Task: structure prediction
Amino acid sequence: MYFSLPLNNLKPINYNKMLAELDIYRDTSRLESRYKKLVEKAYNFKYTNSSISDLAAYKAMRLLEKINRIKFGY
Result:
């Protein structure tokens, strides 16, 4: 009752393509630019409107956690 796969139909694994796709996935430049904008917004509203500043800082912290998860894989 065991089924076996035909071994003559196996294709070689293209590791370069896999690594390129992984690099695209791990590219965080867009997220990092968004993080910098949020930090700058939080700093600019620090003294004029603290609620906007706090919200921007909170979003920046969450985004930084996401960036670190992508970069370091945890």
Notes: The CA atoms of residues 35 and 60 lie 5 Å apart. The chain has a mean pLDDT of 83. The chain has three helices and no strands. Residues 34-74 form one domain.
